[in-house]
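Internal tracking record. Fields below are filled automatically when a chain is submitted to the structure queue. Please do not edit lines marked as system-generated. If the sequence contains nonstandard residues, flag them in the REMARKS field before resubmitting.
Queue: standard
Priority: normal
Entity type: single polypeptide chain
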Amino acid sequence: MPSNEDFTFNLTVGGVKLPEYEKDGSCYVESCLFTPYSYNMTVEEQVGDEKEVQSWPVTPYQLKIMANPSSPRCYYRVFVDGHHVKSCSIRPGETRVITGFRDGNLLKEFLFSLPRFPKDEQDRIDSEKCPKVGTVEVLCFNARLKNTKMTIRTRRLRYLQANKKDSAAVTQGKYGMITTKAGRTIREKSSRKRTDFWQILDLRKGLAVKYVTKDTIKEMGFDVRQVPFINHTEQIGSYWRSNQHSTQTRNQQHLSESKPGTSDLKNEHSEVIDLQDIKVETEPVVVQSSTEIIVID
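SYSTEM-GENERATED OUTPUT FOLLOWS
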């Protein structure tokens, strides 16, 4: 899996790590649209003067970041298809599982999906993001905690999925691509939260994973490995149930670490990284075992 002295990370589906393929210094995974966790999505879009109805399979996926025990507490930024979608601080030895996009007080799935139809000739993602379509990137920064205060969760999702024209610009029309789109609501969060503000100092390290089709992996000369979903199904269900059960315990731990005067924060904790008025929110759920701490977001 992609790793450096600060952290490792991988992509998962249903909590199961996707097999990775290394070639020419890059890491690839298969973005399969037919798994036990996939489902069909139907969307109506206005394209020019006509209404297009699309129905296609999609697959929810997650991102797992594991901070090395010897690394300092760092601030991480996550980019999906060139879009900045998440920021958070991670303590040494902690594992962070990022499950989706933030949209106000809603959390929505990351989905592997076919590109959408362009609405018109001007419907394109930003040119600097286009080369990053099909890539999940994590950057690690040195940062300093400035202060903590109560805020209201109001940031709306502004993610724009890449369309067929964007994908063709990346591939020159030589092969098909999978992109990422926002899916169903995973859960709804309280609008009030405790917020940490951070000052970003400098970049430490970065890692990236490219998600591609099975045919692309085969064309690179690899035998495609199967993902053992069936053997993990019950384990995954138990894992996620235990995560939800541990929410209150971890929130109480955060409150006990708060400064005097924050006892009215109830069971809410969030982090916001502040750099030139950039705010990014998190509300972790933490599961602690004898071997590791896993934060689910």
